[in-house]
């Protein structure tokens, strides 16, 4: 019986079967783009693979990539794999300390430096003496360039093979609770996950052969690496576009006209708030309720977002308010929530046309086994399961049950039809002075559903009751200098507090809402590179003000 195909086998087939098909489209500035066919992509990757081999690295050598999403990220990864190495991707927004930690912890033999916005703040994290290669679009450096190397190097020939149990990549978590952990991903795991994802995408879009997607969520993160890069390498029919910058994002999206599009809850919310900035929610609701006209308006809204061609839209990485999903579905966008983690290549659960409900993250993907422990923790065994944490055997052993299920740390409930609901995260539960545990995520979802709110955090460890911190919507913040508007916002937040508390058990009630003056961002360290809230950091920053807030009789405070 032949061995199951691995991801490189699919890549070689695409190179041979449709060499001239455009695979990657890269913006290069001023509205210009470069297209790369499968043959061109593999030619560059083979030349760089030959160069890497010539350097005499040990089998499985860790080779790092520090870059925003770009076509040469894909090429560099393929080159690393064909040369016999293991990829270590670093989030392009990480600070110098984390860059150094990942490079040293992984014992990286070489670093590819690519498209970056904050390289001057990161360069000190690169250990002296570490060989570096500059990808096209990289900041100005003294490093040898990718283009110079591939121009003088003959391509690696044949079909270099890797074994299923060899490591394809180390994926370092974004470190929301401390030092990043390196999840070891084998070629077998990423190949099986990518096969399942490619098949799910095809099933969800009605068998459309020529797909288009925009790659902009960090490729250093498991979700984008698996659902965009790896599934495209396996399927071979998907045309991957890249975004140039935040300023050109809408133009990039309209260039791609994606058939599949994935985002995180914060960005889905920002898209909605952008629509509301142009048309008040009540007016839009009235228009959508009118037969025929409602469909025209909905189509126009989606076209304005660049999403009118989308057949499958996904949300992951964090919980998304059920009302937000319902809003997009009312516009005709097939927005479905999924659930995954670095430790299984994001191959856990996903919603479909048959199995979906607002507030649920779908059913287990083919081959995935799922159960709920007596304590309410979600336990998963997946074809995409990782091989353990790099250099942390004790943590690896503690992360699995005796029969091989991964302990996710997430709390959940599963319906009879298989649909899974995430009810919180075990490590995020906190106890108030009343002795009751509070799960913040469901309460935050209720807050985030309000159009005034961009992000929220619920806390209150050891306090008489919980409280909420909120970041106001981007279009509202600059207008707060208007006293009348500020007063109106405060009134609306007071009403929101009442409405949310009516939906909670008494021990979960929020004492107050605190409006954050300095919005949380990746740059100020309040959000991870995947836009998850760094709870402990935010809580520590406001700790000196907590006592005064609780002593006040007001229910809305301005931090």
CATH class placement of the largest domain: Alpha Beta
CATH topology of the largest domain: Rossmann fold
Domains (count): 3
Mean pLDDT: 91
Number of helices: 17
What is the first-to-last residue Cα distance? Answer: 65 Å
Q: Please give the share of residues in helix.
A: 25-40%
Q: Record the strand order, biggest sheet.
A: 7-6-5-3-4-8-9
- Mind telling me which CATH architecture of the largest domain this is? 3-Layer(aba) Sandwich
Radius of gyration: 24 Å
Characterize the overall form.
globular
Structural class: alpha/beta
Number of strands: 26
Largest sheet at a glance? Answer: 7 strands, mixed
Identify low-pLDDT runs: none
Q: Strand portion, in percent?
A: 15-25%
What would your notes on this structure say?
By secondary structure, this protein is an alpha/beta fold. It folds into three domains: 7-224, Rossmann fold; 263-426, ANL, N-terminal domain (Rossmann fold); 429-558, GMP Synthetase, Chain A, domain 3 (2-Layer Sandwich). The protein has 17 helices and 26 strands. A hairpin with a 5-residue loop joins β21 (430-431) and β22. The chain starts with 6 loop residues before the first helix and ends with a strand. The model has no long low-confidence stretch (mean pLDDT 91).
């Amino acid at each position: 019986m032949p061995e199951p195909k691995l991801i490189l086998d699919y890549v070689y087939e695409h190179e041979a079967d449709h060499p001239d098909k455009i695979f990657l489209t890269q913006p290069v500035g001023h509205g210009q783009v470069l297209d790369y066919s499968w043959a061109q992509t593999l030619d560059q990757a083979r030349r760089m693979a030959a160069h890497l081999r010539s350097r005499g690295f040990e089998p499985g050598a860790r080779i790092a990539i520090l870059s925003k999403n770009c076509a040469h990220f894909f090429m560099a990864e393929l080159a690393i794999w064909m040369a016999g190495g293991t990829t270590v991707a670093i989030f392009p927004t990480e600070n110098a300390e984390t860059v150094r930690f990942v490079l040293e912890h992984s014992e990286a033999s070489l670093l590819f430096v690519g498209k970056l916005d904050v390289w001057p703040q990161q360069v000190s994290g690169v250990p002296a003496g570490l060989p570096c290669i500059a990808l096209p679009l990289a900041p100005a450096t003294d490093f040898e360039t990718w283009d110079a190397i591939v121009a003088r190097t003959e391509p690696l020939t044949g079909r270099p093979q890797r074994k299923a149990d060899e490591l394809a990549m180390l994926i370092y978590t974004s470190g929301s609770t401390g030092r990043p952990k390196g999840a070891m991903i084998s070629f077998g795991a990423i190949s099986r996950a990518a096969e399942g994802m490619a098949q799910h995408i095809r099933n969800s879009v009605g068998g459309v052969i020529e797909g288009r997607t925009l790659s902009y969520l960090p490729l250093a993160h498991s979700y984008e690496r698996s659902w965009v890069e790896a599934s495209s390498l396996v399927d071979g029919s998907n045309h991957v576009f890249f975004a140039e910058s935040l300023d050109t994002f809408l133009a990039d999206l309209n260039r791609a006209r994606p058939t599949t599009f994935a985002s995180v809850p914060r960005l889905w919310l920002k898209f909605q708030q952008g629509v509301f900035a142009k048309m008040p929610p009540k007016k839009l609701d009235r228009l959508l309720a009118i037969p025929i006209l409602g469909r025209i308006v909905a189509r126009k809204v989606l076209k304005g977002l660049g999403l009118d061609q989308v057949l499958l839209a996904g949300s992951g990485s964090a919980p998304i308010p059920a009302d937000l999903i319902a809003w997009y579905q009312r516009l005709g966008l097939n927005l479905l929530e999924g659930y995954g983690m670095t430790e299984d290549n994001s191959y856990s659960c996903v919603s479909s046309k048959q199995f979906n409900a607002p507030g649920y993250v779908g059913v287990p993907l083919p081959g995935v086994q799922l159960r709920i422990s007596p304590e309410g923790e979600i336990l998963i065994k997946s074809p995409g399961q990782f091989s353990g944490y790099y250099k942390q055997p004790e943590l690896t052993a503690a992360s699995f049950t005796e029969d091989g299920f991964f302990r996710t740390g997430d709390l959940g409930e599963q319906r009879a039809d298989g649909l899974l609901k995430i009810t919180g995260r075990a490590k995020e539960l906190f106890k108030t002075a009343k002795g009751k545990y509070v799960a913040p995520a469901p309460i935050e979802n209720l807050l985030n559903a309000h159009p005034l709110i961009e992000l929220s955090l619920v806390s209150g460890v050891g306090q008489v009751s919980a409280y909420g911190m909120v970041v106001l919507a981007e279009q509202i913040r600059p207008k707060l200098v208007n006293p009348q508007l500020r007063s109106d916002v405060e009134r609306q937040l007071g009403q929101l507090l009442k409405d949310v508390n009516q939906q909670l058990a008494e021990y979960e009630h929020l004492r107050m809402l605190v409006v954050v003056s300095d919005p949380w961002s990746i740059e100020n360290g309040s959000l991870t590179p995947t836009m998850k809230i760094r709870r402990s950091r935010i809580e520590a920053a406001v700790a000196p003000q907590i006592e005064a807030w609780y002593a006040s009789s007001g229910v809305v405070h301005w931090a």
